[in-house]
Amino acid sequence: MSSASTSVSPPLVLAIGQFDGVHLGHQAVFRAAVESAAARNGIPGCLTFAPHVAQLLDPARAPLLLATPEQNQAWMRASGIRQIHTLPFTREFAAMGPAEFLALLKLEFPTLAEVVVGRNFTFGKDRSGNSATLPEQARQTGLQARIVPHVEFGGAPVSSTRIRIAVAAGDVPLARAMLGRPFTLAGLVVRGRAIGRTLGFPTANIRPALPIRPAPGVYAARLLLADGAHPGAAFVPDPADPAQAHFGNVVEIHVPEFSRNLYEHAVEVTFTRRLRGHIPFSGPDAAAAQIARDTQAALAADAEEAG
């Protein structure tokens, strides 16, 4: 007598949230999901939404995103997440009640056993579901729920909003403390006017993929390429300053002794420290002398950061 073998799919544990920037609070949620999945011999996954909830429901007040979907997904995987799912966030989806949302999850993910969320998680129409109501609502759907406490820094919960404020102020060390890594812009290297090259300081001109920028000024920064990180000095122009209009929508970085052709390459720039604001120059010689000083200051800041 023979019996047919049946395969049983491992249970799925889903971390649910927007997770913009994958900061320390998000990473705590992912660690909890990985831990719960390991206890179940299951799979740790992540469920997020596109577009950002605020971009649909309140576009005039929607925040500037901290990272691209590709960046977020890379950081999710680095946190131990093995499956990443994105649900389209539509007005029909936003009109669902909490029970409908959980029923949808069971339909979309038949092996779902547990959901993991942060303390400030809300769901369902008009945010009628939250971390306080979720455990009982999940139980009624045949799921378990795990609520992860806030991660605090400086006496307040880490949040994407606090990080955006720090970035806008040029306080990239504070942003780094809450992100758990440097603030990073992803973008494409484009052709510029080669002014830096004529001064003896060639730059990579990067058109960022997202509108968010650190405060205008000069920063110690790193150009991230496949072969590693290259320290240098980055310049973020002020779009409100007519004298800087010629820079356009770019961030420039000068890396000493770097001459590789990067045009049309996708790169990232990480920001270590703001060195100064904008200084008007009397001429090319004054500009070149200041860029030389900025470069030395940037390299010194990078070495100090590396420890």
Structural class: alpha/beta
N-to-C SSE string, H for helix and E for strand: EHEHHEHHEEEHEEEHHEHEEEEEH
Biggest pleated-sheet summary: 6 strands, antiparallel, barrel
Specify the number of helices: 10
Query: How many separate domains?
Result: 2
> What is the fold named in CATH at topology level of the largest domain?
Rossmann fold
Task: Give me the side-by-side strand order of the main sheet.
Answer: 10-11-14-13-12-15
Q: What is the CATH level 1 assignment of the largest domain?
A: Alpha Beta
Low-confidence stretches: 1-5
Share of β-strand residues: 25-35%
Alpha carbon gap, first and last residue: 69 Å
Rg for CA atoms: 23 Å
Give helix % range. Answer: 25-40%
Q: What CATH architecture of the largest domain would you give? A: 3-Layer(aba) Sandwich
The CATH homologous superfamily name of the largest domain equals HUPs
Shape: elongated
Q: What this model shows, in words?
A:
The protein is α/β, with parallel strands linked by helices and 307 residues long. It has two domains: 146 residues, HUPs (Rossmann fold); 124 residues, Elongation Factor Tu (Ef-tu), domain 3, CATH 2.40.30.30. The protein contains ten helices and 15 strands. The protein has a six-stranded antiparallel barrel with strand order 10-11-14-13-12-15. Strands 3-2-1-4-7 form a five-stranded parallel β-sheet. The chain has a two-stranded antiparallel sheet with strand order 5-6. A hairpin with a 5-residue loop joins β5 and β6. α7 runs antiparallel to α8. The longest helix is centred in the last third of the chain and has 23 residues. The N terminus is likely disordered.
